[in-house]
Amino acid sequence: MKLATIAGLAVSLGGVALLASPAVRVLGDPTRIRTRVLEQLVLWLLLALVLGIALAWERAPLASLGLKRGWARSLALAALLSCGVIWLVSPLALRLVAAFGLPSIGSRVAQFAALPIWLEILSVVTAGVVEETLFRGYALERLAASFGSVWLAALLTWLCFTVVHWPVWGPGGVIVIACTGAVFTLFYVWQRDLVANVVAHVAVDAFGWIVVPLLWT
Fold first, then answer.
1. How far is CA 30 from the centre of its chain?
2. Which of 173, 151, 148 is nearest to 162 (CA)?
3. Of 48, 15, 8, 46, nearest to 145 (Cα)?
4. Which terminal CB of the chain, N or C, has fewer other CB atoms within 10 Å?
5. Are 89 and 180 in contact (CB under 8 A)?
6. What is the value of pTM for the model shown?
């Protein structure tokens, strides 16, 4: 594995892990709006660093991140993926949480819904763009090339994606994220289309975090 790729993986996976660790407290009180905004900005910084490493240091094309031409097809795939996750995967995951007797994610969603709408939108867009690019577009692709196995890379990135969400969402939320993350990962392995994954991720999070709470009120 090349040094540039090691650095890219350290930033993409290690950087997000740091944000999920107690180290994030250096940004301030997690309940403050300012801290939440800083967290979003740090995620975009991680994305910029990874893109810089991929394009300038590795000298890799955008296609190596799953970026393809033909956005119409990507948007159609995104619609298929988002509908499947919203109407099939998420409800089944929530039933699994209830069957295990784990805490509902309702309180977490309610906390998110209490944020200013502009911060909700920023968070949803950041989650979709940054997480899909770091975990799927970069880490999965680089680990697959290094190990010679896309399935091992998919498993490792899915595990990392799931674990980093534990501190915020807890056991019930992690079950849901593990299920939806598995579908996003498998879909990416199938299509290798980062745009489709990003758009679907944003749509799913917007529906669950913004639209549904608005319907409840």
1. 20
2. 173
3. 8
4. C
5. yes
6. 0.95
